[in-house]
# Entry
Amino acid sequence: MPIYEYHCLNCSKDHEIIQKASDKPLRKCPSCSGKMQKKMSLSSFQLKGGGWYASGYSKEAEKKVEKKVEKAAVPVAPASPKSPENKA
# Structure
């Protein structure tokens, strides 16, 4: 079960509460019964090591994608001296 962080608006204490994801957020502080506010905190979930996100793509597939991008790129002509952008 995930750990959720709450902040009491009355006593300013922070609480870490283990709850199911489907449980309703707490409304009363366990210390003073004041109003609680759910905090947004960082997840402890990390992807480490090799895997599809780091090494799951083959080099051949990467080369094919690069070739498609190069073909799709449209060359940009330099601005002419008489264009309104270059007038000073």
